Amino acid sequence: MYTNNNKCEQNEHEAEKLLGKDPPDLILCYLTCPQDAAKAFLGALILTDFRARPLHFSFVSPIRPTRLQRILYGATLDEHLKIDVIAQKLLKDIPKSPDVLFVDAPELLRVRRIIKFPTAFLTKSTNPKAQPGKLSTLEYDTGSNIADQEIVGQILATLETVVDLVEPFTRMREALKEAIKSPKE
Fold first, then answer.
1. Pick from 152, 74, 77: which is nearest to 112 by CA?
2. Residue 149 contacts by C-beta under 8 Å, 6 or more apart in sequence?
3. Which residue from 117, 62, 66 is spatially nearest to 85, judged by alpha carbons?
4. Which one-letter DSSP state was computed for residue 172?
5. Pick from 46, 51, 44: nearest CA to 23
6. Which sequence spans correspond to the domains of the chain?
7. 86, exposed or middle or buried, with CB in 10 Å at 0-12, 13-18, 19+?
8. Which residues, including other chains, have CB under 8 Å from residue 151's CB and lie 6 or more apart?
9. Residue ranges in 77-126 assigned as alpha helix (H)
């Protein structure tokens, strides 16, 4: 008889074999780059353990592009600021290399061109009907990074029964609001 416990054990062994480490040794990374009400660009990054408990948090102060920058960069301004400025800064200062990077917006998948670890846009499933035989409540997209699909899928299959993998985005946005309004020490 095949039970969920056997499936969890099988997923753990597959993830271990695939990543060369036990699931509790996985390091997850989350990146968000929202805009505030004044249209300034913000960014935050959190490294977590496999239970989504924080190991490292960093953020960038609001970036307000000038009118000249808006003209010169045109339609490429958002990507330039989010990927080449914000993500680049946040990712260069992380103390440990993560096993996966989760982003909360599809356009942030472009960050994969500047990093060496799997990247996926992660969200709660929008399908209101539970599908028979499907345990997943998550949807993910690796964009054009086809090679990342298997690794991300294995990590999600292993950890989604352990922790809410989307919830850290909410904590990050709240922490970002708090950090920006607090005076720097």
1. 152
2. 142
3. 62
4. H
5. 51
6. 4-181
7. buried
8. 18, 19, 99, 100, 118
9. 77-79, 88-92
For domain 4-181, is the CATH number 3.40.50?
no
Site of tokens 């993998």: 165
Which tokens belong to 118?
A: 């799997």
Q: Quick one: pLDDT at residue 15?
A: 44
pLDDT along the chain (185 residues), means of 10: 41 51 92 92 96 96 94 96 97 94 96 95 77 68 93 92 94 92 62
Cβ proximity of 42 and 59 under 8 Å: yes
Helix (H, G, I), strand (E, B) or coil at 59: strand
d(CA 92, CA 78): 20
The contacts of residue 30 (CB under 8 Å, 6+ apart) are 45, 46, 48, 101, 102, 103, 104, 168, 169, 172
The span from the CA of 44 to the CA of 105, in Å, is 13
The pLDDT assigned to 93 comes to 85
